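--- STAGE predict ---
source: upstream dedup step, 1 unique chain passed
mode: sequence only
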Amino acid sequence: MVLGVLGALLVPSLSSPASAAGDATVVVRGTDLPVGGPIELSYVGCARLYERTAEVPQPFVGLGPDQAPAGERSLRYDLAGGTALGSLSYARSMASTTTSGLSVQAPRGAAGVAWVGYQEPADFGTTTYWFGRADVSAPAGAWTSVETTGLTYTWSRYDMATRRAVGGATAAPSTLAAMIAERGDGPGFRTVGFGCDGNRFALDALRVGDATGTTTYDLEGLTTTTVMAARPAPRGTVLTGVLRDGSGEQVVRGTLVLERQVAGGWETVQVVPAEAVDATVTVAPEQTTTYRWRFADRPLAEGSVSEPTTVTVAPGQETSQEPTQQPTRQPAQR
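--- STAGE serialize ---
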């Protein structure tokens, strides 16, 4: 997971709010937001932008809660308090951004913060920016859409090189649009997040857009692939199940279900852990039987099924119907 830390902003590298004309939805697997895209995850201080706690945020992908705003899943956090995690977007022209925000759900409600950084034309070529801060909140229990473009911010001037406020330099509370109307347009960033009060929360439907369209980021679970390999053994056939996520890594707490084909569908033969090592079962059916490995859909990752493999038994061959290990339990339906 990459978290934006709002270091020294290099104006030429700032992204445009939208990559193409028209509205679009981008499916994000876990926390893997597109590298170099207009939006990323942020982790910032609630009272002061750069004053964050030392904890390492641990993301959890889960179904819902309730009906997620985009897709089926959301990204959840339970922070210690004092810091906020959410979305961060950059723009060459802050005036061009028409929408920037996200959706949040918190069982007990949640307090968060929005920050905006903006460089007026008089400061071009320097590391001085205006920073604006605004409190945000979400009520208990329901998904809430939080929009940052219309917020009223409290303003101070910061030196991005030293990450310190420029002494005594403030502006009256106002929206970013009012600041731009008074001082001129320029580049900058917006970030909004939750966790300031330590209440757990879920995020989904991160969005950023301009006049050409809005891009919404649907936070979903990992994709998976399941592959079966078969090889002969002295007392049967060894069936190996290989479970990987979309990046080629093993799935945390992954288990595979070995199934055999029967009239009307498939039945469970055995459930085998597949987290540390690949799942392996030796089978010796009495008659020709078709098998497959299945990874059951769960909150963290989407399910997948291997291509079937048929173990052929020659006429008159004496074998045992059961695998070398007895079935353990039915697959968890989560």
